[in-house]
Structure formats: C-alpha cells, structure tokens
Amino acid sequence: MANSLGEQMRAESRWYSETAQAWIAKGRAEGFAEGITRGMARGLLLLLEAREIEISEEQRRRIGECRDSEQLKMWVDRALEVSSADGVFS
C-alpha cells in the first residue's frame, strides 16, 4: 500500500520541518473544503433531479463551478421549496 506524502517525508529524511507540516496541513484543508463544495453541488443537482425540476446547462454550470459552501447551502434550502430552477437562483 502506498505511503502518504507525510509518511514518505518522515521515512526519507531526518528532519520533518514545521514548514513542511504546515504545507501538508494546508493542502489537506483545501482538499477537504473542495470536496465539501463538490459534494454539496452534486447533492443540489440530485435534489433538483429528484424533484423533477429542469435546469439549463448554464444553471448546471453555475452550480458545478460554485465553491462557496454558504451559497450552495442557500440554493439547497431554496431547492426544497421552489417549483422551478429560476427560484433557486433568485
């Protein structure tokens, strides 16, 4: 099984600097945040699909490109109640 970058750095080097640790932690945090927003966007699309609300390609793109979790949450909340996709974005 492949080792993580952190494990490789510790195994291959006598020192494991705080700077390297900070970069690894930052990368993990950024990856986690991106995963959350991608999941929220996918969930929103699934919710709209389940509610049989049609969305345009432009609206689908807008959802897919959004990286603001608060914005996505607002859209999800709206998607629970609206009857058209336009209501999600207004």
Task: Note the topology.
Blueprint: H1 5-12, H2 18-50, H3 57-65, H4 69-79, H5 85-89
Helix pairs in contact: 2-3, 2-4
Low-confidence stretches: none
Give the helices and strands as they follow along the chain: HHHHH
Structural class assignment? mainly alpha
How many β-strands, per DSSP? Answer: 0
Biggest pleated-sheet summary: none
Q: Quote the distance from N terminus to C terminus.
A: 48 Å
How much helicity do the residues have?
Answer: over 70%
β-strand percent reads: under 5%
Give the count of helical stretches. 5
Explain what this protein looks like in three dimensions.
By secondary structure, the protein is an all-alpha fold. It contains five helices and no strands. Helix 2 packs antiparallel against helix 3 and helix 2 runs parallel beside helix 4. The model has no long low-confidence stretch (mean pLDDT 88).
Features:
single chain; 90 residues; mainly alpha; elongated
Short description:
This protein is an all-alpha fold. It is built from 5 helices and no strands. The longest helix has 33 residues.
